[in-house]
Amino acid sequence: MANQLLAGKRGIIFGALDENSIAWRVAEKCHEHGAKLTLTNAPVALRMGKIQELGTKLNSEVIPADATSVEDLELLYEKSMEILGGKIDFVLHAVGMSVNVRKKKPYDDLNYDWMQKSLDISAISFHKVMQTAVKMDALSDWGSVLALTYIAAQRVFPDYGEMAEAKALLESFARSFGYHLGEQKKVRVNTLSQSPTRTTAGSGIKGFDDFFTYAENMSPLGNADSDSCADFCVVLFSDLSRMITMQNIYHDGGFSSMGINPRALTES
Ligand SMILES: NC(=O)c1ccc[n+]([C@@H]2O[C@H](COP(=O)([O-])OP(=O)(O)OC[C@H]3O[C@@H](n4cnc5c(N)ncnc54)[C@H](O)[C@@H]3O)[C@@H](O)[C@H]2O)c1
Questions:
Q1: Which residues line ligand 1 (CB under 6 A)?
Q2: Would the pLDDT of 2 be above 70?
């Protein structure tokens, strides 16, 4: 049995679609560490994905919520507090989607209606998740709110399209809301910048295999996988990280600090 770093804590996990999802592994690890959870995803993902399977496995209720709908989020918090028996100690936002990326639209030929949708789903939803929690007083003091992001917010990855701007906005919301939630409730807000990971969202990006291999060869430790990401999420939800807030934390095997790795030249 793992150390019970999250014993007695109540959490909401967004974004587990299937067993490849980062959120799937995070939910499993949080459960192993003693947390009580509710799982949520968009109604369409509940129909197409396997989240119910995860709910059964972890004995966790699955509550549908479109992360862009404040009404859905209100219901999610209301039901989660009722089911879990109190305020929420941690939230994982693992939500991302871009129709432009999915349809492989080049960066200089983007559809702006789709861009609005991308920003709403992938970034503004994070603000909604926090603002709704504030209005409902749904978070425990010293809680932890975390979103998953990617280094394309800081550096150019041409095929990541407008998701680069979505991630930049997401990270900015973490800093700005981190101030408010810190002052109000001692709640911390961070983003975890993860290595390329083979998931439904990840594999939807043009040339994903190439930049997965490139990052693998650039990073002294190699790419961080979902399992190690989940371990780190557990730490970020636990009291061990209670003074870390308003940070974008790289979880990438060292990729973000590299200039050139000779291995990337010889093995690409
Ligand atoms: N896979 C990678 O390489 C990688 C790297 C860095 C960061 N991330 C981020 O990790 C997070 C999780 O993605 P993943 O790679 O595990 O892929 P994934 O496809 O398994 O997860 C994305 C999730 O977002 C959900 N979603 C989409 N629209 C939604 C909506 N309107 N409401 C609620 N949920 C919605 C999907 O149903 C899905 O469960 C995303 O934010 C992604 O950008 C992924």
A1: 14-15, 17, 21-23, 41-42, 45, 66-68, 94-97, 121, 148-150, 194, 196-197, 199-202
A2: no
What domains are defined for the chain?
A: 10-267 (3.40.50.720)
Roughly how many angstroms between the first and final C-alpha of the chain, as a whole number? 40
Residue 268 has pLDDT above 80, yes or no: no
- Cα–Cα distance list, 255 to 153, 160, 249, 252, 260 (Å): 14, 17, 12, 6, 10
Contact 208, 202 (CB under 8 A): yes
Going from the Cα of 8 to the center of ligand 1, the distance in angstroms, rounded, reads: 27
Which protein residue has the closest C-alpha to ligand 1 atom 17? 201
Are 173 and 181 in contact, with CB atoms under 8 Å apart? no
pLDDT reading at 201 higher than 90: no
Q: For the whole model, what pTM was predicted?
A: 0.98
